Fold this sequence. Notes:
Strand content: 15-25%
Number of domains: 3
CATH class of the largest domain: Alpha Beta
CATH architecture of the largest domain: 2-Layer Sandwich
Number of helices: 12
Shape: globular
Order of helices and strands: HHHHHHHHHEEEEEHEEEEHHEEEEE
Number of strands: 14
Amino acid sequence: xxxxxxxxxxxVLFMIAAGSYLFMTQAIENHREKVDLYRDWAKSERWEYxxxxxxxxxxxxxxxxxxxxxxxxxxxxxxxxxxxxxxxPDMMGIPRELDGTLDYPFNFRxxxxxxxxxxxxxxxxxxxxxxxxxxxxxxxxxFQAGEEAFEDIESILFENxxxxxxxxxxxxxxxxxxxxxxxxxxxxxxxEFDQYLVDQHQSGIIFEDEPEMSLKNINESVAEEMSALFAxxxxxxxxxGGNGGLHPQFGERIDFETEKGDYEVTATxxxxxxxxxxxxxxxxxxxLNLTVEDMKEDALRRTNRWRERxxxxxxxxxxxxxxxxxxxxxxNNVVNxxxxxTVTYHHTASKTALIGMDFSDVxxxxxxxxxxxxxxVLSEGKARSSVNLNLKxxxxxxxxLVEERDGSPVLTYRYAVEGVExxxxxxxxxxxxxxxxxx
Length: 439
């Protein structure tokens, strides 16, 4: 009888333990889902402040009233979701006094309201010195402080997925509030925001005059190009994910996989041109012993195997585990920022591998080359005089072919500048002296 009782007790204890385990597991999962939501919230806040910072910086660097107005519209368009901005902190238990901090861009006329004011009262003369100074020393610095604050909050939320350190988030919001409140707001009205429309440049189908090639011939042609890029024989087969479809610029396309299964390759049916390739299974790719600087040389070497021409490599993106190198075509000392090969690498402490190469921009520019004017009308010194007087030019202008606001190519002088945080270069039209863009 005693043995039977112990069996019952053991069974009950087991059921209690199992129930507790399931309850705890569900609670942990619910907590993890909430933390993921909080992370997304912090990221969206950071992106909002980062977006406004980027566009205000470009507006300040511009010497063209049209470009300045364009960037002001885009700055206002960067604003986030006011309801989401406040509801998520409520879930986290953030005090109301700090919760209101997240309303700053919406309530304070010194930010979005002031930008709206500039838009509504625009007279095509550009910013006055007072307006330029206020944008630079108050609005820009406020949004930079917001970007830094939410970058820190995002890091706090990624420290431990199972433990929410609300006190650290509160402390960082208080620091942000102190910085924001240290600036004085002007007595301005808060007009309605008008949506700005940007014309989209459309291009026709490239290679439309070339004949359609057989699957066998396309396979052989692309396999030969891939073999040259990797300096070893490459065999291709039809992609397991689908045989292709329609490309907006290149028409009908066909997709292949390498026999090894590490890359997927896309080619045009007309002419059999390889548009590019991308990683299919990262684990099957070759590990490369490359530093970030080595990647520029590796990308240039592979590009020359594809087309041996005059190229200029430039590191264009480096974030987390991805490095991007752009290989620009150079013709008669003009760097064509539109005719480029984009080479991407996976780069971590455990592995570096080639992710892919994109040749599409080269084909697009070749189709437009006959319409591009490559000789400057203005001297470098004359174009330099069009740079915003508030900026300091650090070096002689370099001729570059870049994209105009409507998407068409334009010959420019690129000037390295300083004077606005986040802006390192401005481009001035080599024919008209107009401001083209900044970054």
